[in-house]
Amino acid sequence: MPLAAVFLLGFLGMFFFEWKTDSTLKDVTYFTKPIIVVVLSYFLVKKVNDFSLFLKTVVLVGFSMALIHISGIFLFGKSNTSINDLRGSFGLDNFIEIVSFYIVLFYRKTYKSSLVKNLFFETIIGVVLLISIYLYFSRTMLVSLILIGLSVFGYTKVTKNKLVFLGAFLVFLSLLYAYLFSVKIDRNGKGIEAFLYKVKIAPEEIFKTKIDRENHKDLWDHWRGYEAKRAFSLMDSRPISYMIGNGFGSLVDLKFTAPLDEKGMRYISRLHNGYVFVFYKTGVIGLFFYLYFIFLLIRKTNKEGISSYMSNRFTGSIGLFFLFTSLIISGIYIPLDLMLFLLGGFLSFTNREQVIVKAI
Hints:
Layout: H1 2-9, H2 21-48, H3 51-76, H4 83-90, H5 95-111, H6 119-135, H7 139-152, H8 160-182, H9 192-207, H10 216-221, H11 223-236, H12 241-244, E1 252-258, E2 265-268, H13 274-299, H14 309-325, H15 339-350
Antiparallel strand pairs: 1-2
């Protein structure tokens, strides 16, 4: 299993570089969590052996979370609350809501029936999920909504019509950014203006590395790039780490005490960029296995087996989701995420000879 190989490689760098016990335990937790969650959910769902029950459970969980999220905002939120405060109080994101939304749509499209009691309740569920997804004001949620949708409905499989669709989407994206850079957007604005500012700086937030640490606006707007810059700077001083990584327990020196918690942190273990995180800990070999694992998931998208058609599509879409989120929220190694549990569940049905799907 590729993720197991990544985990084992994390011990290799420990023979060459310094490490701390508490940091090592954190890293071991980060790198074992996806393996444990996927394996446990795989066997749990396989034991139940009811695909429709699994789908219904996911949708009900997502719908319940969406109701709680919306209720919290309208009951306890204030009209003058900024987006940052709103997200800090009621959640940064919830990707299970996106999967739930597409399960409802894909089930109807594929099996010509409703996963829930009737079309009315199905519509209510879909609308509530979309409203909740919007109210997270999350760039990651927005992009994930698009990517998972493209994957689930087969638009990642190259055809002439899909290339035209992709071209039109890229034109739209180019026009959007042309507009965003042609108008002045207040960094400290509220509501949709604050969200548009975050959309505007999203690409450079990840990739920009020429950052003035003394300029707080520049630093916090490009924090992911700064983390990566510091990681590569430390790896430059020990070239062998590019091959085998720095190992579990290794830390990235930020060169200043950042207000990341109440006490402040100068040394960090986990990076927002999952690719750099894996590369820093396990080197190019570990990064290869990490990418290979994601590739294996995405490859299932276009497998058209009748019995595992739906599970293959969602497995592949989760792989594409991790390919994207590895750039910004550690991908598979994000501490709290239900996507891994969903992945294990869908994987348990991808290789079945028969998957019983029925309207509920």
